[in-house]
Design a protein that fits this description.
By secondary structure, this protein is an alpha+beta fold. It is built from 1 helix and 3 strands. Helices cover 25% and strands 30% of the residues.
């Protein structure tokens, strides 16, 4: 029996530098959120949401983002 094709999600990778100087590389953001007039600005909100979820699980407060840029640029 043939399998149904699965929906493919495209992601864009970002490098994040936090206010404390720490860095996280290759953070995934769904490509459908990006583009248009806002460019990569929605990526910051998506990554902040990811950070909140991580901080809830770890019990540590989320870090403030200083800069965000696409990986490889």
């Amino acid at each position: 029996m043939a399998k149904k094709p699965t929906a493919r999600s495209e992601f864009v990778m970002f490098d994040i530098i936090y206010e404390d100087g720490s860095q996280r590389s290759n953070r995934k953001v769904d490509a459908s959120l990006l583009g248009g007039l806002d460019g990569d600005e929605p990526a910051k909100a998506a990554i902040e949401e990811q950070d909140r979820a991580i901080s809830e699980k770890s019990g540590l407060p989320p870090l403030a983002i200083k800069t965000i840029k696409r990986s490889g640029k």
